Each structure stands twice: as C-alpha cells, then as structure tokens.
Amino acid sequence: MASERTTTETFSSHDERLHIREFVETDRDTLREIYLSSRRSTFTWLAANLFQFDDFDRQTSGELILVATLGEQTIGFSASWVPERFIHHLYLKNGWTGHGYGRALLDATVERIGRPARLKCLSMNRHALKFYRREGWIESGRGVSGSGNYLEMTLPSPTEVSRDRVPR
Question: Mind telling me which residue stretches traverse the membrane in this protein (predicted)?
Fold first, then answer.
C-alpha cells in the first residue's frame, strides 16, 4: 500500500538493532523469499509446490507492509488490510522466532492499524496460535479455507480488555 509517510521505529527489546519500518520497493525480493520459505517450512501439511516466489506480490497488494530489520538484515514482515484492521500476514525468517522479534513486529503492526485488530490463523499452525494467545488475542470465530481450518482471532481494544479483564 502506498503511504504518504515513511516511518522508522526502534523498539525497546533486548536487541536495540531491531527496526521496524514501512516497505520500500528494494525489499520486495527479500520479502518474497521470506514468505516462500516460511510457508514451505511451516505449512508442511500442504504441498510445497502450492507456494510460489511471486505469491507475495499478489497476496499483499494494497496492504500496509511493515518490515523488520536487525542491523542490515531483513528478518520479517507483516502485511495488513488497514480499513478492516486485519493482519493478513506476519512472518519471520526461518530461525528468528523465539527472540521477541515477532512480538515487536506484531505490536508495531497493531499500533499502526489500531484495535480491535483481527487475523486468521490456520488451526494446524499450533506454534502461531500459542504465540497469539500469549499476546492476548482471543478466538472470535472459525472457518475453513483451501489450506484447512482456521481460527479468527481478535485483539480487543484496550477498553474491552479492561472491561473483560483479559491480559495483554
């Protein structure tokens, strides 16, 4: 999604080299590769040939894309449909999970799109479901896609959280 402004943010984490910024065209090939390799290694119940290098272009068209970099290395991205506060994609490069970078990217994405925010997560992606639940996301629906069953998850607005006493 074209944006009138470009932001660069540094998030306080154990690694001060982490920066999250908006997509620029020179990111495209790196993000294509992250998207392809992450899906092939995560969605092992699906045929690997279902995932193609140029899927990134089609499946993020018109979306706000945030890019996570660590030093000079791109380690992940998120893509969101802002009008519906819907996080369509959140991927880290293989080997970079478990260090707080996904949380920082998720937090930056929610900060940009607002709350309540929504996403869908395939039911068989247990690692991601555990991550989202730990971050305060709650199940708000279920469905079936060509890739399998999924849960729709919502991160309530802060007023809903305090009213329902759901930890964030």
Answer: none
